[in-house]
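G., the chain you wanted modeled:
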Amino acid sequence: MATEQLTGAEIVIRALKDQGVDTVFGYPGGAVLPIYDALFLQNEVKHILVRQEGGAVHAAEGYARSTGKVGVVLVTSGPGATNAVTGLTDALMDSIPLICLTGQVPTHLIGNDAFQEADTTGITRPCTKHNYLVRNVEDLPRIMHEAFYVAQNGRPGPVVIDLPKDVLQLKSENYLTPDQVKHRSYRPQVDGEEEQIEKAVEALAKSKRPIFYVGGGVINSGDRATELLTEFIHLTGAPCTTTLMGLGAFPGSDKQFLGMLGMHGTYEANLTMYNCDVMMNIGARFDDRVTGRLDEFSPDSIKVHVDIDASSINKNVMVDIPVIGDAERVLEAMITLWKERKYSLDKKQMKAWWGRINEWQAKDCLSYVQDGPVIKPQHAIKRLYELTKDRKPYITTEVGQHQMWAAQYFKFEEPKKWMTSGGLGTMGYGLPAAVGAQQAHPGELVIDVSGEASFMMNMQELSTIAQYNLPVKVFIVNNQWMGMVRQWQQLLHGSRYSESYSDALPDFVKLAESFGLVGMRCEKAEDLDRMIQEMIDCPHPVLFDCLVSQEENCFPMIPSGAAHYEMLLGPDDSAARPISDEGMVLV
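Predicted structure as tokens:
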């Protein structure tokens, strides 16, 4: 019996199937035509045609984050690959597992400045977890399966596989299945050291003012990790706060949840963080938008840091008890130890601690006044949450004020429902990410909470939504400004609004209709609830233009370079406490 011969392109498709891939997001070009031909000849892997390669990567991010699977991207050489760079950097910063297949000129032309040639591996080395240039078709099966292993294991991230066209056309008899490939050296540590876990649990048990500080690493670890986290927090009775990326790791309506912390986090979360005596950090990386001024970051606390990425330990904040391991494994070990030793937090001390927290909560830092016909942006997003929460929607966002308001007013009861660009802050992320989430969850409600300026960054993906009839709802919080830029210009630059006003905006209703979608515009507060309900009930894609008050700022806010206790709760605070010169540098 003759051994089956496969072209490089057929090997790529076979490997994708063997890895359980059902969807690829991409855009064709000359260098990857052999792969597109192989896609055409099969029906198991579906291809979603985006309108720009950056949209393909963001769509794959939305797919990956809403499913927990690896997102897959297929782009051509040269500009196809370089257009993907922003999305790859976004995925690296937010620890999203992706495989990006890039076409390349034939091997004999590499380095000759050939048509549509770019040094893809050189360009993407700083913005990927790993990358490969495949020069021999015999190496292709191993590299394909290795890449999936690298993308998913340890701290997840994007992996690029650069594929010269001649490699895609050559044939090989030596296809390998995933179980035949084992990475030679990459073995992430998943089990935390027992001694460190014991120290961490003992410190927590002795604490008088504990807090759980939870990041996206818990969500990346899997659903079981979030279940264990919830169990552990309930066992202890301690308060919990999450980063922007950690929203949904702990139920948003739980009485022990203090909301998001950081620059636009809640007053109670930030003050609890500052005043705690034991900080249990699980899966967060001490981002500068969380820590504020480092020398005033929770100065009197014992800091425990659980992270699967050893390079994140002591990178930004020196910690007392590092635990390197997977969140699920470490939480399981911590709970076992807590129960075995019958630990409990001191009831009297915890009552006093919660008493202080309740006083901070009484500030009601997210309150606002909706009066008159002009819609407050906070009100628009809060009502969007309240009218959709029974559907448990998948929420994507763009970047800016609307992103922070969505994080403040939506309560996520479970993981993988919240997709936003946290580390890189990529305007234009939300619309294509919603494409990926909707493709992964065809019967579910998917909403992109957007600003009009961010929406314009990737609005061409409305064409993708129309082609595949994806019932995405795009909710534009339209204040006609680059809102967060305008806010900083007001606070830092004497209200000199240089180039931050969105002039010459399109008629979003007509824009939607030009793509065959449904367009809606809401201008008055009295119409908001009815029109949001109409949007939800509509079975088609909807572009909802919500006109809001133009100069509303996003509060509460820790100014860059300030400490947690130096929060601004409203515009009067900002007038009384101007931003420092050091803070201006950090914006």
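The two ends are 66 Å apart (CA to CA).

Shout if anything looks off.
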